[in-house]
Amino acid sequence: MCFEVMFVLYISNMTLPSVSQSTTTQTRLECNHLAFSQGNKSYFYNNVNKTCIIYPTIIYRKDSLVSHPGFEYFVEDGPACGPPPVPKGHKLLEVIGSPGNYTARYKCGQYYIHRQIGETRCIGNSDWTETPCQDFASCETIKECNSSYTTDGEYIHYPGILNSSSVRLYCHNMNTSSPKTYLTLNATNVFDVPTGRCYGGHGCEVYPYTNPAQGKTTFTKVAIDTEQMSSMNHDYTFTIQDFGTQRPYGWVFCCSLSNIAMCLRGRSTIDLTNTGLMISNSTSWSKTGHLSHFTVNRTDFVVQLRGDGSCGGARPTGNLIQFVKDQQYVMPDDTIDPQCSLLGI
């Protein structure tokens, strides 16, 4: 936002332009960075109305300036890193320090915790160090927020990717410093690569055949990456193995030699009914393996997959399944609503 402002300062017999082009910035450091990133040498800043006036040269006799209400005059200073970052969930309180060593202080927003980071600093001309506010998104941040939580169970989370809206997720290994986050599945989620195969010109008749990929895995909970709100691969902590090799969540696979597209013997079911999450429309499946064929029958909560190949089938595109919130879901009363013992500054 730019506008014109009447501003008169005097130094010796020199008068600054009575009408100067100016802009507004949220902090003096932003004005500082704006001035010197464009090769200017000094600037005037008003802390009250946030007016920033950039001056191309240095006025060497600062004591000769006539004070103007609210304005101060500055020569080149401030962090070489530029203005401190203000990510989502952060409110910048102040920046303190001296040339070459600056510290930024923040207040964390609702559903964000103030992590045990002493300060966010700019030293020399490197980047600012990590900011302190972390969204209440995972079991690990809940544990960091309040170490008294040592019991595994269903906790309310506020993932930033869901605009900090509440979801119910299971925390495992809360008696450690690195608990993991899962979604409890209330319906059958099974991934079956059956034994045998279709062979020759005999329709879908199955002949004996074994392959290391064969196996049947049922998930009772699926590991969740709360930064992306997606499934995590190759976590079988909460599974039941009927036989053979553990099968990854969301894949469909089988091994046949003929009538592949007709038989589609591999079967998989994803069912998020009554979990509080739905399968995102952005989730899709792609072919994997050799001579692959597959079908997808889906609703917001359930996906039925059939697939086959030699050996082949389908996997989630990008190897993950994206979840979104079910806005109609009613959170059970027994869900733990975590309270933070680390208060923001």
Automatic annotation (TrEMBL):
Record keywords: Metal-binding
Keyword Metal-binding: yes
Entry-linked PROSITE patterns: GON
Pfam family, one: GON
Domain GON: 135-331
Gene Ontology terms, MF aspect: metalloendopeptidase activity; zinc ion binding
Protein's UniProt keywords contain Thylakoid: no
Tree of life domain: Eukaryota
Protein name according to UniProt: GON domain-containing protein
Organism ancestry: Eukaryota, Metazoa, Spiralia, Lophotrochozoa, Mollusca
